[in-house]
Amino acid sequence: MAKYFDVHPDNPQPRNIGQIADAVRSGALIAYPTDSCYALGCRLGSRDGMDRIRSIRRLDDRHHFTLMCRDFAQLGQFVRVDNDVFRAVKASTPGSYTFILPATREVPRMLQHPKKKTVGVRIPDHVVTQALLAELGEPLVSSTLLLPDEEEPMTQGWEIKDRLDHVVDAVVDSGDCGTEPTTVVDFSGGEAEIVRRGAGDTSRFE
């Protein structure tokens, strides 16, 4: 059964955040809220966690996982960002955007797109997620919690606990966080290519 953490949306309890971070470090797969919708997350380098996310969502090995980063400095450790892209990404973070960029050596090969050697990165504008990332000290490997054959992600922590009780290790509930996933922008070719239109305004990339 998954552990259930009821976390205050504006003032996350440090004890809860510490316990969630410890669980992630120990290999737990968590369901947690973001500024766009709920996500599944595991520790960087956890092949088991990634395999479990793929199994839950029925994804193939071409799926772009996202590194949920605390800030721009951390993001810069894991992707290569030239000056033009730097300005565009910096102006859009934190926020509901995922950027696909060339991966650095810090990114485990199993996380990179098998052909393009890219990875998705984002900086969330969400108090609870930021508190967790600060406590972890490293990115969370993440994917939108969208179940197969369903058009919208689940929005309620109790519902996720009920549905995924035996396939995730912890559920973090800090209230409803919406159903619209991030806007995905691919900068790996140098120019902005909008891969998915979502919660983030796309006009600055068009």
UniProtKB/TrEMBL annotation:
Gene3D superfamilies: DHBP synthase. Residues 14-200 form the YrdC-like domain. PROSITE patterns: YRDC. Keywords: Nucleotidyltransferase, Transferase. Its EC number is 2.7.7.87. It is an enzyme of class 2 (transferase). GO terms for molecular function: L-threonylcarbamoyladenylate synthase. It holds the Pfam family Sua5_yciO_yrdC. The keyword Nucleotidyltransferase applies. PANTHER family: DHBP SYNTHASE RIBB-LIKE ALPHA/BETA DOMAIN-CONTAINING PROTEIN, THREONYLCARBAMOYL-AMP SYNTHASE. This is L-threonylcarbamoyladenylate synthase. It comes from Streptomyces cinerochromogenes.
